[in-house]
Amino acid sequence: MAASQNRRSPHVSANTHPDVYSHSRAAQPPSSILGYPRIGPRRELKRALEDYWHGQSTSAGTSRAALEAVGRSIQEDTWSELHATGLTQVPGNTFSFYDHVLDDALLFGAVPTRFKSLQNQQHPLDFYFTLARGNPDLPPLELVRYFDTNYFYRQPEIDETTEFSLHAQSLVDEFDRALARGIELRPVVLGPLSLLLISKAAPGAAEGFSPLDRLDDLLTQYCALFELLAKRGATCIQLDEPAFTGERTESELAALKSAYTALSTTAVRPRLLVTGQYGSLGPALPILAATEIEAIGLDLVAGRLGPEELAAIPGMTGKRLYAGVINGRNVWRADRLVVLDYLERLRKVCPDLVVSTSSTLLHVPYDVLSEYDVDGNVADRLAFAKQKVGEVVALATALADGPSDKWRKRPTEVHFNQKHAVRHRIYNITDDMRVRAPYSERKIAQGTKLDLPLVPSTTLGSFPQSTSMRQARYELGQGRITEEDYRKQVESEIEEVIRLQEDIGLDVLVNGEVERNDMVQFFAEALEGFAVTTNGWVQAYGSRCVRPPILYGDVAREKPMSVEWTAFAQSLTDKPVKAILTGPVTMLARSFVRQDQPLYETADQVALVIRDEIADLEKAGICIVQVDEPALRELLPLREKGREEYLRWSVAAFRLATAGARPETQIHTHLAYSTRASVVDAIEKLDCDVTAVVATRSITWVLGALAENVLSHGVGPGIYESRSARIPDIDELDELLTQASKTIDIDRLWANPDGGLKTRHYWQLEPSLRNLVAAARRVRRRAEQGNLK
């Protein structure tokens, strides 16, 4: 197919556009989405993955076949369902057995050198899981947050020797199977710039090397993919470039221009749709509009543009615009009349318009109709993935036929909590309520109270939950066991966790969070203003799924939430037991949050609840409280604009939550997935006594950031990677702690994992923690002897 044959006039009618793949579909208004959930409506993929990993089937071959069958079923059900809704274009290649970023890295042959020796020794699926999960000898690819979402990806590793090559069999197989059913898929692939920009230089890469240095080599493989798909009959391919919704350098923008100038003039290719999800494309938009790509997808929820702004961009009015007006990342129903008015104004400047979602629907649950326990006033305002597809189709139809007589505005009921006078408390917050006694005074008081050794060892909260514990929680919810039976189970589990930690030799213990289902959901269930779902599962990574609560109204606490079980754990030991709470920003970031008031006000409401909880913990004799904020950076704007204001109110909310603590109460926090040095300034402003920072896989970077930005308080750089099955040895942990001691004063250094241990098995964590304690003792001994180098 020659280039001239493969491109369309930008003003071809949407109803006759070649991307629409059947005559029956051609009469319908254009509509699409950018992606869809992939774990299965009942988490079928999660169960199949874990059965396979844990060897539940009789043989590896049978287990693999069963897993692959589940994957095919989810794929095919998704195509059929989306096609039946009336969408004129169905995205493909959105299913993944673990992570789509890892899939796309392997699509182009980006296998790290350290895994090469295994590539021909394992079945491709097992090799794939080795990259994602590691093995006793090889840590997996690093787990990194995907932009500002709650999804985490395995970060590709690229260096000068990476041999890019095309491996598109599974993508082509899916396309062919769908086509046999009369459904032409639009394959979705991470764009070449974003794939390289979110990768990391492989260990051992030359100094100064950047994965973007390999762009030209990678583009060759993208061109090969285009040709393969075009010859297969594909009319359009979606290339996601979310990296350009954040701040980018001039050289990176120049690389974008060069890459898409080349890709759009490739002789044999499908039409190119380039999307910018999770925000505004900013300066990247005019660059893309000036190339010969046919279509651009914009997030018009997070990065809304007026029609006049689009019209002012040279070349934009001649592109097909995928107008992302339905929020792919929150669960509130759109006000369709307002959105329709916006679309009608957009169409006047971009006549070739497709109604779409702002992002993939990977970030929302499947179907609100499967929820029976959510209050009707709340449920009536919700739209999960299925409902959002319906909104897209309805809006597209309304562009041609006008709005339905049945349309009504989104309910605007506001849920004020008068009983707990939440608004009154918010209005009476003073600056003094966000300030603790000076750290120098607190450090002395805490030293006297706790009498901890140098380099104290601890964990960050959760331990694995037994099958019997999970079963007891389920049966309690079903009314099959009594509250007393459940309490006995929890007490037994907590005692086992305490005894294990004492035997290991940890200095500060935790209750293991055995009574909790999830760090956010547990507290949401205990608070007014939150609704929790039954089947509202969302993939976090791999088989890890969460049910984000829905924060719909004023937040208040009826009674203490964590005191009973923390105090019980403390009663079992003479060592200090650390209470674990979830911080206000993380409660917001890991929930679907109300949109009728500013985030900072909602954050302060949650902060007041935590402040009250800390006071009750102190009354119960608890002297250490960890207020986790692993999501502190997840709400940080991708662009510089707005970051200062966000950090101001997020830090203020944390300080409101913790500043009421007594001087002798030691406040800890946990900041996970920190990949920017700018977070260091926020750490200091949080005014925590001890901060645990994820640093296992990026310890050089983190310690460098700490060295450049002096922290005056305690720091625990995570030295044991909690999400890997690998067991680190004592020498390795000793080396990491010793390295940390060169940046962090020894009297401020803590030894801890980089996250909770809920996803590990005891046979993995017990030797790892024993090695961590041994390494801490080695460093402590050398420090006391003056031999720490």
Describe the structure concisely for a colleague.
This protein has 789 residues and is an alpha/beta fold.
Helix proportion: 40-55%
Task: Describe the global form.
Answer: globular
Determine the N-to-C terminus distance: 66 Å
Largest sheet: 7 strands, parallel
Spatially, the strands of the biggest sheet line up as 1-5-7-8-9-10-11
* Whole-number mean pLDDT: 89
The number of helical runs is: 29
Computed over alpha carbons, the radius of gyration is: 27 Å
Beta content: 5-15%
How many individual β-strands?
Answer: 21
Query: Structural class of the helices, strands and pairings?
Result: alpha/beta
Set down the secondary structure blueprint.
Layout: H1 3-6, H2 23-26, H3 44-53, H4 60-85, E1 90-92, H5 100-107, H6 116-119, H7 124-133, E2 143-145, E3 152-154, E4 157-158, H8 169-180, E5 185-190, H9 192-197, E6 200-201, H10 215-232, E7 236-240, H11 250-264, E8 271-276, H12 284-289, E9 295-299, H13 307-311, E10 320-326, H14 336-349, E11 353-357, H15 376-379, H16 385-401, H17 422-427, H18 439-450, H19 467-477, H20 483-504, H21 521-526, E12 527-531, E13 538-541, E14 544-546, E15 550-557, H22 563-570, E16 578-582, H23 584-589, E17 592-593, H24 599-619, E18 624-628, H25 643-658, E19 666-671, H26 679-686, E20 690-693, H27 699-708, E21 714-717, H28 730-741, H29 762-784
Parallel strand pairs: 1-5, 4-6, 5-7, 7-8, 8-9, 9-10, 10-11, 15-17, 16-18, 18-19, 19-20, 20-21
Antiparallel strand pairs: 2-3, 12-15, 13-14
